[in-house]
Amino acid sequence: xxxxxxxxxxxSADSIVSDDIYFESSGxxxxxxxxxxxxxxxGCAVAFxxxxxxxxxxxxxxxxxxxxxSVGTNxxxxxxxxxxxxxxxxxxxxxxLAPERELLGKFNQTVxxxxxxxxxxxxxxxxxxMKYWGRISKYLHWAGAIDETIKVKSWVGKGMxxxxxxxxxxxxxxxxxxxxxxxxIDMHPEIRSLWEKYKTGQIxxxxxxxxxxxxxxxxx
Length: 220
Prior knowledge:
By secondary structure, this protein is mainly α. Helices cover 65% and strands 0% of the residues.
């Protein structure tokens, strides 16, 4: 099924706030990009502030979605309550419950890139996401005198640039790639054997790729 990708350019403020979009990471990022475009066109600092808010919300929601994908049924209410309201705690929970998340993501990405039905999987850089979250957060808190911050074009411009950079990183991945995971327990035995060797450093990702090309029937 083809993705329907909305256009975030040339939208009015009314269309941005009234559009019925879902409150998932892609919805927040779409709205943030729409605000950034409006801020550029109108020279509107308020639109930039709205963009920063939605961008940070989008990153937080994305981390939560990553947690659900990475942990699956092992995620319970107690763990959920530990991280509500704090992106840093959320990130810590992900690292604790799914320490091999990024490694497994790269492995799965490689496996599905050479299968008979190729699936371009996303492997999020969580350190980069947290870096973006921190840099954007600066523009959502009081940062000094008005005539040194929000009324200064260079200050606003710098904030818009980092906010847009973060949003484009997320948006491009979401429109071009797919979210998913194959847990080791669900792997074909030969694929799982490759995973064990890869995660323990016995083979590198290129060796995984070459081996998978010879195991296409197992992957299928």
